[in-house]
Amino acid sequence: MAIISVPFHQDEQLREGTIPLSSEATLITPELPGTSLWDRLATLYSAVASAVSTEIEASATATVVSGDCMVALGVVAGVQRAGTDPSIIWFDAHGDVHTMASSTSGYIGGMALRMVLGGDYSLVGERIGLRPLAESRAVLVDARDLDPAEADYLAAAEITRCPVDDVRIPDGPLVLHVDIDVIDAGDVPGLLFPVSNGPSTSSVLDAIRRIIATGNVVALDLAFTWHSAPEHHDLHADLVRTLVGWGASQANSASSGNSET
Length: 261
Description:
Elements: E1 3-6, E2 8-9, E3 12-13, E4 26-27, H1 37-59, E5 62-66, H2 72-81, E6 87-91, H3 112-116, H4 125-128, E7 138-141, H5 148-156, E8 160-162, E9 174-179, H6 201-212, E10 217-223, H7 233-259
Parallel strand pairs: 1-4, 1-5, 5-10, 6-7, 6-9, 7-8, 9-10
Antiparallel strand pairs: 2-3
């Protein structure tokens, strides 16, 4: 089982060491066109989708690590290319349900889940062959830092919302997306967008472990949205090793199960 590493925050490649990984990770670093942001992201996420599809067809589970949440578009598209129609569980301190029209900052990382559900579809989703997921197939976990437009959207949407300690797990195949900033900012130093009053590291890891234990996770999408700094390296590396290790365990279990049928 290869780890798929996408060392980018949007279209900017991360500094080496931002996500501590072994040399065995498969790097996704395509040459991005020097045109618009959306052209570059579509190129990057199409490459991600191809790698995810190949990995799922080979081992039944893909583990993807990156520096932001937008990579999830490529992950979901790749799962679909492999012939699977998933639901998604989205761990994040933020809603990530803005559109280009509703966002006041223009930060596209705050639009990632909405784009998975079909928002601003022509910008990326349509280009990479993503089939938008229905709102009813999305679970948003511990999103506590919401802008007014996001709160209004979520109040009317069919997205399930729940805390880390009571995650509602859909039936069938799952994409499990984890933005590490879902953890309380006091537990994880160096976050790009820290949010307090959140769950502890142990609570988040327990919830993730319960979901993986269902055996239904076909793709584990990990967004390590933090700054790289020497003083944070050991803690960051421990989190990466733990989560990536669980993804590997899920892949090995699924492969063993497939070989027995």
